[in-house]
Structure formats: structure tokens, C-alpha cells
Amino acid sequence: MAIITAGHIFLKRPYGVANATALKQVLQNQGSELYASPDQRYWELIKNQLIITIRVQPITELLDQCQDELKLLGLAPDDVPEVITVEGLTESFDHCQSITDQLAVSLSGVTRGAEHCH
């Protein structure tokens, strides 16, 4: 199995139009091909032939995966209505890290940055 790089951005407010606009701007600034689902909750960024996916999901769908990270950040699930996940292969670690950090700043989210998962 390939090693996956992933970063989570924990949003303290529900994902809405303003978040989608800010997220799109960060991704467009990467200077790569960009594709979005109609509801703008799933994105694919192709950078240097690497595909990076960005998903926006309610915390309830990721609670099992994120429980330890939430504890390390001092957050309760009730503090975080939605989570943005940035994923790519290990070769895209630097890109995933940069995008995760930029999204956290642009969307006033909380993150520990990207890390290697499996």
C-alpha cells in the first residue's frame, strides 16, 4: 500500500459560501489544474502530475479518525462542526503541508499540519 500524506483542518464554523470561496482561492493560487464537485465539498488539484484531494465533511463522519488529533489540539467534537482533509501520496507531502497550512490560515481553522498516515 502506498504511503498517504494527510492533513486535517478543523473548522470552528460550518462550511459555507465564504469558506468555499477562500478554499478555491488558496487552491487556484497553487497554479495547477483544479476540479470541484458541484457542492464544492470535494476538490482535486493536479500539481506536477500528483493528485491532491481536498474533502470537506462533518466531524461526525470522521470522529473515529480524528479523536486523538482533537485531544492533542485541545478541541472537543462539539467545537468543530466540519473537517477539511487534504490527502496525497507521500511524494506530495510538501504540497499537502503547504495547502493544509494555507487553508488553516484562510479559513480560521485549527491544524497540526500534514503527516504520513499509512
Put the structure in a nutshell.
By secondary structure, the protein is of the alpha+beta class.
Low-confidence stretches: none
Beta fraction: 25-35%
List the helices and strands in order: EHEEEHEHE
Number of strands: 6
Structure description:
By secondary structure, this protein is α+β, with helices and mostly antiparallel strands. Helix content is 35%, strand content 32%. It has 3 helices and 6 strands. It has helices at 17-28, 59-73, 93-106, and strands at residues 4-11, 33-36, 42-47, 50-58, 82-89, 114-116. It has a 6-stranded antiparallel sheet. A hairpin with a 2-residue loop joins strand 3 (42-47) and strand 4 (50-58). Helix 1 runs antiparallel to helix 3. It is globular, with a radius of gyration of 13 Å.
Which helices and strands, and how do they pair?
Blueprint: E1 4-11, H1 17-28, E2 33-36, E3 42-47, E4 50-58, H2 59-73, E5 82-89, H3 93-106, E6 114-116
Antiparallel strand pairs: 1-5, 1-6, 2-3, 3-4, 4-5
Keywords for this entry:
118 residues, alpha+beta, globular, 6 strands
